Amino acid sequence: MQDMEHLSVISPKVVLFVKKNAEETSSGNALVIIECSAEQNHGDRNNHESASKQMDVSKIVNELKMQESSFKSNLWEAVERLMFIKRNEISSLEDFLISVKDCGAAARGNKVNQATKSHTASTTDSDKKHSAASTSRSHKKRALCHRTGPLLPVEMVEHLRKRIGSATKIVHVEDIGARNAVHVEVPQELSENLRSVLHSIGITQLYSHQAESIQASLTGKNVVVATMTSSGKSLCYNLPVIEALSQSSSSCALYLFPTKALAQDQLRAFLAMTKGFSGSLNVGIYDGDTNQQERTRLRQNARLLITNPDMLHVSILPHHRKFGRILANLRYVVIDEAHVYNGAFGCHTALILRRLRRLCSHVYGSDPSFVFSTATSANPREHCMELANLPTLELIQNDGSPAARKLFILWNSEDSAIEDISFLFAEMVQHGLRCIAFCKTRKLCELVFCHTREILQETAPHLAESICSYRAGYIAEDRRRIESDLFNGKLSGIAATNALELGIDVGHIDVTLHLGFPGSIASLWQQAGRAGRRERPSLAVYVAFEGPLDQYFMKHPNKLFGSPIECCHVDAKNQQVLEQHLACAALEHPLSLFYDGKFFGSGLNSAIMSLKSRGFLSYDPSCDSAAKIWNYIGYQKMPSHSVSIRSIERERYKVMDDQEKEIEEIEESKAFFQVYEGAVYLNQGKTYLVTSLDLSSKIAWCQKADVNYYTKPRDRTDIHVVGGNVAYPAPAKLSNQFSRTTARADPCRVTTTWFGFYRVHKGSNMIFDKVNLALPKYTYTSQAVWVPVPRSIIKAVESKQLEYRAGLHAASHAVLHVVPLRIICNLSDLAPECADPHDGSYFPERILLYDQHPGGTGVCVQVHPFFMELLATALELLTSCHCREDDGCPNCIQSFCCKSYNEVLHKDAAIMIIKGILDANISSDSSGS
Ligand SMILES: Nc1ncnc2c1ncn2[C@@H]1O[C@H](COP(=O)(O)OP(=O)(O)OP(=O)(O)O)[C@@H](O)[C@H]1O
């Protein structure tokens, strides 16, 4: 009985002991009960060893209840609740005692309290002997139970340090100092109307950048406002627009927001601002949620139309005559959050804006000014000029807004990042700090929400309902409700995906938590920018996962805080996308080589020829031959309907509960990651079990469940190179020694297979069951660029005792990293073929990149001519990177988008493979010449 610690005298007959280092019971408990008499209690424990029983907590509690019915029920409740909630976490007597202490007044007012006091004192020494990890866990519990009342965000760092003790997880604190405002008087040229608008929202002075930008816009210049998050960028476009609309009763404006939520938010702000406004501004949102009646009303009356690029593409431009009044009088086009228009989506938006400007010019004789805003782009001017094909653009970036101090903590989790962020989330809420916990995936978002709520139910039940989750997939009504609850202060915390990253005004937020690196430094700042608005000090905590990418930033904080944010890229010359939009443009208004070159660039001629040969365009011989007019003659009535600008899928699975209520719709490509028979499915913190999946009607039926595990699909993505000609030939002139490239560009078939799932214990994250499933595969055709690896190289790598597969995996990541050095693209458009680290079966011997969008956006075809040069650049990258680890760093072989979580990478093997391919290529080149 030396390993027993006295827990409490529960009754004259029963004493609870914790068995130190006990083997876990089936439900993961290490509690032992000693049954004895009151006198025996004070005797030698060894005498009663035979009476000890180790069993499930549930059985213990029931047995104790039966034996001791006279005991106070509220204490039972407390103990029971505690045991169930904490089942895997009771690592020391102190943990348990602290938790008991927190379990209500009843528990504190009786014998347990006395036992608690004496044993808290007596176990302090033994606690010191605990390992660092268990000490930190113990401190964590103490933190959870410790309520000191409201704290300021900046006080939280010290508080956390005290709570988690010496085994600190805080590896770095970046102190981002406050910035003073640079105010200027409201410019003289602003009308009385505008002054009264400002007055009505309590603004007496402008920030310097606002005045600069407003003045430029009022004189008709195109402007990009590139200042910090929460720097008052909305005013930079709202004021000139209100001015224009109030000066002329016919003037109109168009606002483009990338999300519906943002559009709603901005409409709210605009209406609040113009509440007492004398003139009629007629503002409205025209998006997929707008009903027919409202659409008609807006087409007839709106002067400020708030929409998105998708609506512009499929509805407004193809039916432009119905919007003729607005287009003819268009004074301003506002594009908020310009950094979102990046990569493939940016490329499509760039062509949509060209279609808009062309119609304004050719059909309606208008030439609107553009106002862009962005907080997180390293090249705002270059990016926005390319986006709208503008000859000039005024860059406003001298930020005159004030900012309060922000502390940015890097938190390296020793055990579970999910548990840590949940603990931090609960801790913030308990100290009166409003908080958003950003999670990378929908599932993580639900898990963090559930964990945090469990903690709060235990430690501060009155706060358990004050948190919520928010992610894509929720029905619009739920999202609007959550947004407004957060705005109104009904909610004090929210676990969210990047759906909440853009500038929705969610009221004041004190703290942002970030679970894992969100994919770009720009995105991390964008998320962190949600807190500390309105000059309040704030806190951000980046909680790292175990993966190499997060660990890299934990080791090198300067790579986060000292590096510039990423550039935004769009490639409006992408031949494939250009042709898709030219077909749409030709339907909207006939195309002319003569008049349209300035909108669509030098690729116009060859794109028209290609469309002609494919039966989309025909030349109108009746027109003046110099103007060369081309009409749309394609078989599709509305070509824009088949051009998906965000790869939005039409095929979706519905998730229904047993009351036949729809809970969510999930895109087909993502459905089986979430719903399959036996899956634990989470939605807004509720746990469901998927009882059946009807593949024909695409419905997943589920019912509420109370389970202590989650499920994880087992899946694999295979690339099958189909062969044959690619749609677009490589440019004739290829450069230097790699002209006889062995790289190929081919159509490919991308197939994701789900072959089952794991059941994983919630607390321990241990897999305890493996289930096989037969689900339909998800397949789409796309394009790939690839190069085979000669057998001799594989042998050479293996002869050095290096892992060939790890080298191949690392090499494809390195090649992916250098693609943006040669072409303008978004890295998420492309993906490398990643070897499944847990699958030892055949894997193709090649380095391959494929286009992630069904049908492909043409990036691989563009890459093909210089693929071997990319290999040479990748080799330079690897050999010049001084990181020492075999599995490299994010600067060389680790990739954020790796589907195999950067497992099984080897830098030296990658160097050998790339070098080998290049050597083989040069020798085949010289032997062939
Ligand atoms: N000149 C000003 N004086 C005082 N407060 C201002 C001024 N201009 C704007 N604000 C306030 O600053 C807050 C942030 O403004 P806004 O939402 O326009 O910022 P933003 O730069 O668009 O933010 P985000 O980057 O998140 O989209 C608002 O509450 C707004 O009322």
TrEMBL record:
One GO BP: nucleotide-excision repair
Principal EC category: hydrolase
Domain of life: Eukaryota
Pfam families per the UniProt record, alphabetical: DEAD, Helicase_C, MZB, WHD_HRQ1
UniProt biased composition (Polar residues): 111-124
Keyword vocabulary terms for this entry: ATP-binding, Helicase, Hydrolase, Nucleotide-binding
Entries under InterPro entries matching the protein: DEAD/DEAH_box_helicase_dom, Helicase_ATP-bd, Helicase_C-like, HRQ1_WHD, MZB, P-loop_NTPase
The protein's name: Putative DNA helicase
Organism expressing this protein natively: Rosa chinensis
